[in-house]
Amino acid sequence: xxxxxxxxxxxxxPITVRWGDxxxxxxxxxxxxxxxxxxxxxxxxxxxxxxxxxxxxxxxxAIVSVTLNFRQQVHYPANLEAGIRCIKVGTKSFTLEHxxxxxxxxxxxxxxxxxxxxxxxxxxxxxxxPTQLRAALESTQLQAGRSPSSARPKLTxxxxxxxxxxxxxxxxxxxxxxxxxxx
Length: 183
Description:
CATH superfamily: Hotdog Thioesterase
Order of helices and strands: EHEEEEEHE
Shape: globular
Number of domains: 1
Low-confidence stretches: 144-183
Strand content: 25-35%
CATH class: Alpha Beta
Radius of gyration: 17 Å
């Protein structure tokens, strides 16, 4: 399988690296990558009219899992593009794939996924995704034959022999834990 390309994504969100995004080591701080993906995720939500497609104002998305893999260091100044698309739609949750490219290139600096449950916040529980939202999500899904994990570029930290990985898990705003249906 081929490595991810910008052309694989219908939605590319421009990201400008700010001076304040860097840490004491002179590269973009690892926590800031989550903010870049959040920016792309919100643009994705807008692109599928997620809030207009809910059946009740108490119903909304909730992140239940995020993975983030660092592939290259990024320094100021830099322009990036976040590619985002839906790769799976379940009964009560959906999975988004994120790729962060150097602007105008297929050079991946970070990638990851986020699992979003559809939640009734009043009940504190995951509920089925509304039919209209499901159709919108499915229209953005990964094309058959491409694996989101295939042929990913690997970044080896220059001072270690291991690949750099970072995993963040978020249960729910209430702390009760909205566990997604992964069917």
